[in-house]
Amino acid sequence: SVIPPENTKTGIYTQYDIRHLLGEGQFAEVKLGIHKKTGNYYAIKIIDKKKFLGPKLSMGRNKLMDEVKILTRIRHTNLVCLEAIYESENYLYLVLELVTGGELCDKIMNKGHYSEDDSRIIFKQLLDVLLYLHSEGIVHRDLKPENILLAQKENNTFIKVADFGVSRIIGQNQYMQTIAGTPYYLAPEVLVQTEKGGYGKECDYWSLGVVLYVIISGSLPFKDKPNQEKSLQQQISTADFSFPKEKWSNISLAAKNLIKRFLTVDVKKRINIEQALKHPWMLKKNCLVTDLL
Ligand code: ADP
Ligand code: MG
């Protein structure tokens, strides 16, 4: 291994029984891992180094390992924590806390959508966890229901956010290029500026707005339909979305207002997390009709 042994370890197969596939994402396969010594269960995320680490590795291993160290220090009840990292010739193995409730997006597909009260419970955890990540200098950049896991099967509203900090390991530019392939949750400034990467934590605020829209209604605000006059990218860059009556007639104005405040193209006018925590919808209060204009 090229990575200094104090930071990553080799020989993951001597330490863990690696079992069946738990899930697949854009960057990795995730498999069940049983720690041989303790019998504890983990999720092992396996990243193909050739595919994803090329540019980052050539930037210098020490920098990469600094990122890894930072990520193993990050701990929050609503985050899938990173326990350890192993490396082999071709792969990087992230040993993660195992989460058993499945993806939020599957839950939404089965349920249709969440009630406003349950949505608020979920959303509060998302705000808390992003506030924490941002305070640690980490922008998630790929917040979407596939990356929001349910902590337990028996509980619909206890969530754990997965996949944080990946852009720090893989390299921001390459990361953004790959996730730009599924832009439903991407902020306009990210879509336009993928090359430079000159955007900050506000891109997570935008994604929060899309996620809230999806949790409450079970549908996406920006869609990629073949007969649409505006492309997905055009819709996002002008915040061109609506609250169709079939799904939104019984939803409070406060919820709609909060979503609008997040889905604001101008990053300076977009609502931030501190403000969102005090928004009427979070406090279970009503909004005026004029707030929606
Ligand atoms: P990628 O970076 O490739 O998108 P993710 O971290 O999102 O990878 O993981 C891909 C999928 O694997 C997730 O959508 C989920 O279904 C499953 N998964 C990821 N982390 C865990 C975990 N800690 N416990 C259980 N399943 C997980
Ligand atoms: Mg993912």
Automatic annotation (TrEMBL):
Taxonomic superkingdom: Eukaryota
Binding site for ATP: 45
Occurrences of domain Protein kinase (ranges): 16-282
Protein name (Swiss-Prot/TrEMBL): Serine/threonine-protein kinase fhke-related
Organism: Anaeramoeba flamelloides
